[in-house]
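Audit log entry. Action: structure prediction of a protein-small molecule complex. Ligand: flavin mononucleotide. The ligand was supplied as SMILES and no pocket hint was given, so placement is left entirely to the predictor. Protonation state taken as written. Sequence taken verbatim from the request; no trimming, no tag removal. Recorded inputs:
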Amino acid sequence: MEQIHVLGMSGSLRKGSYNTALLAAASELLPEGMTLERFDLSSIPLYNDDVRVLGYPKPVQELRDRIAAADALLIATPEYNYSIPGVLKNAVDWASRPPDPPLSGKPLAIVGASTGNFGTVRAQMHLRQVCVYCNMFPVNRPEVLVMRAREKFDASGRLADEDARGFLRDLLVALADWTRRLRGDDFNE
Ligand SMILES: Cc1cc2nc3c(=O)[nH]c(=O)nc-3n(C[C@H](O)[C@H](O)[C@H](O)COP(=O)(O)O)c2cc1C
């Protein structure tokens, strides 16, 4: 069975981010045949179409190349004011533009952690809406909504909650199946 290389992105830039910690947890829970690397969005400048027409800035080109080379994406989004953070939307905007928008046709899984009671559900729905225009193909389920994150991660930042780890593990398996389906592999082999 062919390997699936996943690129992970967190919509939070802070060091102690629960969402970045979710990506770290995913690295521990990968199914056989899947790899996960992370792209840190802190180097991505604000979108400016005048800049784009002159040529993508180096960090943006690197992001676009890494997305293009990945078989699938794993996006961990915080919820900011009922939506996705500007950091994440900005990166999506850069990666959605021509030539050959690297997001187009890309399978992805969405996860999120919040300190409140709703586990980023509203942000995740907004991200799914963004995926429509970008022609991205998110896995529908299981949903990974880590609510009350302070109770679910231990002092070292490790995802300690067994239920959340189980949902995350199942989502990664679903992402592997989905990616193989979309690229036409016989995933039953
Ligand atoms: C600007 C801002 C807006 C926020 N808005 C929401 C919100 O709409 N819903 C929510 O559940 N939490 C909200 N929060 C709280 C975040 O869920 C919490 O800060 C979370 O830890 C951020 O993710 P991180 O740990 O990955 O940085 C907001 C936080 C910030 C900084």
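Audit: result stored. The pocket of flavin mononucleotide is lined by residues 12, 14, 17-19, 78-82, 114-116, 118, 149 (CB under 6 Å). The two ends are 7 Å apart (CA to CA).
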